[in-house]
Amino acid sequence: MANFGPKDIKKLRETTSAGMMDCKKALAATDGDFDAAIAWLKEKGLGAAAKKANKVAAEGVVSIEVSPEKAVIVEINSQTDFVAQNDVFKGVVKEITKHAFDNNLGDADAINNSEINGQPFSEYLSLQIATIGENLVVRRAGMIVAEDENFAINGYLHANNRVAVILGAKCEDAQTAEKMRNELKNIAMHAAAMSPSTLSYKDFDPAFVEEETAGRVEKVKKENEELVRLGKPLKNVPQFVSRQQLTDEVIAEAKKAIEAELAAEGKPEKIWDRIVPGKLERFISDNTLLDQELALLDQKYVMDDSMTVAQYVEKVSNGKAEITHFIRLEVGEGIEVEEEDFAAEVAKQMA
């Protein structure tokens, strides 16, 4: 006769979050010994988690925790968006994020190789996989730590929990740092929406810039073909796509070309100094399309598109602050999900 009843099953389920039938099997296998049943579920849970480990986890959430001293950002993947909305999963995300924050774990490897609640993190995660029923992966993480009291930190987590940004800025004094914390929240919102991949054009690999040049120039030419059809003004076709390519020699040549154009138009030379700067600025704008798309500081700021993010920071800080740290994570970036043939999968299961 079994040495347990419905109350024992309910208690074990509440303690472990395992399924009701699994709890019943655990108690039956251990003759009602509650602690032994927990151990049994743990052992079986690890086995269940291993079976799910090869399932691609491309859904999930990003999470952040921010204080004036530091900020942590973590991407935790699940297999389905449905599970990502599960309260148990949300609790796991919160616990892992706090664990990373409290223990200064600045990347995914540090988290995955740590100990949590007195056990190896891999074991902890396997138990969550067994409980939730899907593969879970701590895929990416980052951390920004304040260098001193003149360093500002803030971040933004979008409402869907799929995009998050953390930022850090060096400031000349504590008063500027305090002001910049509020500004960084808004700039982080900008970055969440506009999807920059790097902080500055200076961070681009020159080979990447070179690869992007031809395609982006051709894109403008194609756009002009459509503008011709619509009878609208044409865009200037760029020669370059990044400030990286605009050497002193290139700028000097552009200035000469502008001056030659003004001379051909009969503009008096005495007024050139009022015209050239604006045209040169337009030349730079036309020839930095890559920067404007992918580099945060070079993007037009959505809250004031008359200036770039860098120019806005310069303005609001009176030149006393500079954004130096930027991390943006969006769920599933770069993960290739294999399309499943449902009919074939069913046939395989029936074979």
What does this structure look like?
The protein has 351 residues and is α+β, with helices and mostly antiparallel strands. The protein has 3 domains: 7-52, Ubiquitin-associated (UBA) domain (Helicase, Ruva Protein, domain 3); 59-145, Elongation factor Ts, dimerisation domain (Tetrahydropterin Synthase, Chain A, 2-Layer Sandwich); 201-330, no CATH class. It has helices spanning 6-16, 20-29, 34-52, 81-84, 87-102, 108-112, 121-132, 174-194, 206-230, 248-264, 272-286, 289-294, 309-316, 342-350; strands at residues 59-66, 70-78, 115-116, 119-120, 137-145, 151-157, 163-171, 300-301, 304-308, 321-330. The strands form 4 sheets. A 3-stranded antiparallel β-sheet has the order 1-2-5. The longest helix has 25 residues, at 206-230. It is elongated, with a radius of gyration of 28 Å.
Features:
3 domains, 14 helices, 3-stranded antiparallel beta sheet, Tetrahydropterin Synthase, Chain A, elongated, Helicase, Ruva Protein, domain 3, alpha+beta
Q: For the CA atoms, what is the radius of gyration?
A: 28 Å
Mean pLDDT: 88
Span between termini: 39 Å
What class, by secondary structure content?
alpha+beta
Helix content: 40-55%
Give the biggest beta sheet. 3 strands, antiparallel
Strand order of the largest sheet: 1-2-5
- Low-confidence stretches are 46-54
Order of helices and strands: HHHEEHHHEEHEEEHHHHHEEHEH
